[in-house]
Every structure is written in C-alpha cells, then in structure tokens.
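Human:
Take a look at this sequence-structure pair and walk me through the tokens.
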Amino acid sequence: MGRVLACYLLRAGHRVTLFDRDPVDSGAAAAYTAAGMLAPWAELEQSEMSVFRLGLRSLQLWPELLRELGRDVDFHQRGSLVVAHAADAGELVHFRRRLAAKLTAADQLRDLDAAALEQLEPALTDVFDRALWLPGEAWLDGRRTMAALAGHLQAAGVAWQPDTAVLGLEPGALTTERGRQRFDSVIDCRGLGARDDIPGLRGVRGELLWLHAPRLRLQRPVRLLHPRYRLYLVPRQDNILVLGATQLESDDTGPVTVRSALELLSAAYSMHSELGEARLVHSEANCRPALADNQPAIVATPGLIRVNGLFRHGFLLAPALAQDVIEHLHRDAAGNRPAGTDNEVMQA
C-alpha cells in the first residue's frame, strides 16, 4: 500500500519521504508472501460489495501503473477458473449462485463444459469436466511488483529511509530512533505495525507453498472448492505454481505447519497427478492486517491519514485506495493550506 501510494503521490506532484522498517529489497511485509491474485469476482463470495467495487477500479488502474513502472512483474489478465471434484459438485453450484446473487449482471461468470474447459485449460480435463471461468480476473508476481515499485520510486527521487521503524505518529510529525521529524502530512500504511494505534486491528495468518512443476502447464489461476477450505494454484515464471491458501485467526508468522502442508499438498495432488512429481521448493507464512469487518479503512484527520485493513486483498485494492487517500489529502490541503505544497510521508 505504501509503495503504490507513493507512486500516485509523485504523479500528483508531491514530494515524498518513505520510512520503511525493512530493507528496500526484502522484508517481512505481507506483500512479499502474497500470491498476487487480482480476483474481485472470486473474492466476492466471502467479501462485501465495497471490496468488489474497489477491486474493479484497481483492475483498470493496474495496467497503467505497470506501464509507468516499466518493468516485467509477470502480470496477466486471462481470467481465473473455479473447479470442484464430482463429489463436491454442489459446492460449485452454490459458489456460482452466491456470486450471481450479488451481481447486477452475471456476464463475467462463464460456465464451461468439458469441451470448453479443454480449449481453455486442457491440463485440468484429466480430473474435471466442468468449471466456472471468471474472465476479467488477473494476477501478478508480488515480489517482482515490490521490486519494480522500489526501483521506480528511487529513480523518481523519493527520500527513502530503510531499516527505520516508526516509533510514534501524530498529525504532521513522526518519531524514529533519529528523533522527531515534521512534515505537512503523515500517511500511515504500516499494516500490523500500526496495531497499537488502531483498535481491533488483527493478524490473519496465511500459508503458501511453491511447487516446481515443469510438466504441468497452467495458463491462469485455478481455485478448488472444498467443503473445508478454498485452495488455489497460481502460475508464475520458471514453472512455479504458488499453492495456498490457509486462513487462520492468528498473528503467528512462524514456518508453515505440518498440518497445513499436508492439507495443501493432498488437495493439490487431487487436482492433477503431475503434482505428485512436483518439487516443493519454498514454503512461507505471513499475517495480513484485518479489521473486525474484514474491510479496508481510511481514517483521515488534518495532517494524518491512516489506511489499513486490506486483509487478503492488498494488491487487489492498493491502486483504488491510493486514489481515495489522495482525495482526502487534497481536501485537507484545500481547507488548511494552498494545494500543491504538501510533503507526504508514508510508512510501509
């Protein structure tokens, strides 16, 4: 959120200082763990319409932002597929009904029979004879995107202060180990780092496995519906498939547990026999910042704006929320000082 917002602030003509508790090229932020799915339709099953609408806006904004970054982040917009085993066929029917009930038009929900699935994703027809295609969805590589954002911001002259934890925030000022510094505006994008300042902010743990599967070629993300969990496979470069997703009410960022690994791998193997020969090359767990209603929030006061609670939708929502934050900032500027004279500060 902080890096995307910094790009939009620069574009709007502001000078930006970015305080980051992590190094520039790595860190503990949830963005480094995320699978990078931009999937407002699939997420609508369990999210609110406000998240869906923000996601649609961001889907339109991402291509423009990526052109501005000028670097390959493995972005694709070929839609995603939702499947279920024959024994769980009712899950797919119910999933589609829940989405259709929330949409004013269901033109972004495409039912595929075996022949249509064969044309779109032939590897899946060994196991599945039907699927739901959500053609508007996209995905990107979160780590590549973080690196591209960092490169762009540094080249554009952002005053980046890495390895610098923020110890305190107030309107127009923040405190680090180097002391108190003043700015026209402070924007807090610290995620779980802001827990002491945002009542009800909690961590929701997610666990991912990276599989190297050179003999299984998927062209788009695939979600498997199951009565107990929702699993996804997201293709990345170099024949990597990102496998998730557990969702646990916990702020534990320790390694992936044996139980989660067994459940994820067993479910993945049920999707295609080739995954039995895949190599497990990486495992990772992290916590997403979430509020009580699992919706993002922007809290704006003169000189201080907080944006948090992106939950599992960080990459999906960041561009649209950045636009909204800037609107708050400019309204503040119009009411308190001449517009266009602000220095903004972000903490990633």
About this structure: The chain has one domain: 2-347. The CA atoms of residues 176 and 315 lie 28 Å apart.
